[in-house]
Amino acid sequence: MSDVNPIRRLRLVTSPSGDDVGEAIDGALTRAGRGDEAAFAEFYDLTSALVYGIVVKVVRNPAIAEEVTQDIYLELWRLAPRFDSGRGSGKSWTCTVAHRRAVDRVRSEQSRHDREVAEGRKSEPVFDQVSETVIDDLDRAEVSASLDCLSPTQKEAVSLAYYGGHTYREVASLLDVPEGTVKTRIRNGLIRLRDEMGLSS
Amino acid sequence: MTGALHHLSAVYALDALDTAERDEFEAHYPTCEICVADVALDREVAARLAEAVAIAPPEWVRSAVLTGVAQTRQLPPIVRPRAGGSPRRWTRPGMRVSLAAVAAAILVVVGGVAVAIRSASGIDVDDVVAAPDASITELDGGDGSVRVAWSPELDHVAVLGSDLGDPGPGLAYALWFVDTDGSVAPAGLFTPDDDGMVRLVIGVDDRATAGWGVTIEPATGSDQPTTPIIFSGEI
Known about the structure:
The complex is a heterodimer.
Chain A: H1 5-14, H2 20-32, H3 37-59, H4 62-79, H5 90-118, H6 129-139, H7 141-146, H8 152-162, H9 168-175, H10 179-196
Helix pairs in contact in A: 2-3, 3-4, 3-5, 4-5, 6-8, 8-10, 9-10
Chain B: H1 3-6, H2 9-13, H3 19-28, H4 33-51, H5 59-70, E1 108-110, E2 113-115, H6 125-130, E3 135-141, E4 145-151, E5 156-162, E6 171-178, E7 184-190, E8 198-203, E9 211-218, E10 231-234
Antiparallel strand pairs in B: 1-2, 3-4, 3-10, 4-5, 5-8, 6-7, 6-9, 9-10
C-alpha cells in the first residue's frame, strides 16, 4: 500500500536511534521549550552551523546572513514550546524555519530591488545574475556529493530551488524549461533522495 | 485534496512555491494525513541538504542571540495529549475530562451530514494518524473505501472513508475489532456524509487486535455483527 508508506516511514525519523546529534538537538529543544535558556544555548551550539550555512547559501550577503540568523534563532526560541518531537526531528524543524526565513528575506529584498529598478531609482546590476547563480550553486563539492544520486537535471532543479531559494517558476525561467518539468524534477529528485536516506520502502 | 496539490509536497518543502501557491497549499495540506507525512519526510531530506553546506557563524552572533532570547517571550504551547507515560494532561478550555474513562466519540449528525469528529478528550484524526505507534490499514471490500488508523497508546481509532453508500434508514456502519482467534468486538459506528465521506475518531478500549471488520448494523449498535462483513483488513 504505497499510499501509507510516508506515514509509516515518518516513524523512522521521529524515533532516531544512533543519531546522537539528532537526539541531543531534540532534547535541548524540548527543554528550551520550557523556558530553559541554558538549554537553548546548547541548542544553538548544536545547530548554528546548520542554520548559518543554509542562510549564507540562500542570502549570499554575509552581513544580511548574520542578521537573518539572529532573527531565526529568536523565532526558534519563541516557537520552541510548540516543537513536537513526535512529528519530525528537531533538526528538520530547525532547518525548515531557517530556510523559510532566508527565502522570505531574499524574496522581499528582490521585490524591493525590482521596484526600485522599475521606478528608475536603481539600475540593473552589471554582472549576469542568471549564470552566476547556476555556477555558484552547483560548484561546491559538498553540495555535489549530497546530490550525487540525482540525475543532472534533478540535481540542477533541486539545487536552484533549495540552495538558490528560487521558486519553481524562477527555476523554469533560469533553465528555460517548462514549469511542469521543474516540478517533476524536484519531486522525483526528492523521492530519490528519500530512498538514499532510507526513508521510503 | 485534489491530485495536483498532492504532488506539490516536495516543491513546498523546499520553499519553492510562490506566496499565493504556498498559501493555497498550506490551507489544504493539513487536512490530508498523507501530505502531512510527505511534507515531513521531504523536510528531513531538506535538512540533509542543509547539512551539506553547514558553516559556523561568527562568534559574536551567539551572544547577540542569547541576549535577544533573554528579552523575548516564548509562545504558549499547544496542549496536546502526550502518548505514553502518565499522568496525561488532556485539557481543552471549559472541558472536564475523566482521566479514568475512555473518551467516547462525539458524532454530530446535522441534516444528514456527519460532522465533527473530535473525541471528548480532544484527540483528532491527525493525532491518531501521526502517532508513532499508529497502524494504518486499508480495508478491502465493497463499494467505497475505508481506512482505519489505530494508536493503542492514544486508545483511539480514526476511520477515514470515501465513496460510501448510505447504510439505510436507522442503520449505520459498524467497525469491529477482529482478533486472531476470530473473536469480534465492537469498536464504533460511523455514517458517511452526503458525499460518501467519513472522517471520524473514536475512543476505544485498550486491547490487542489482528484486524478490522465492517458490517451494517442498527444505528443503536450491536454487540456482535448481525450482517455479513462488507469490509475487512488485517493490520
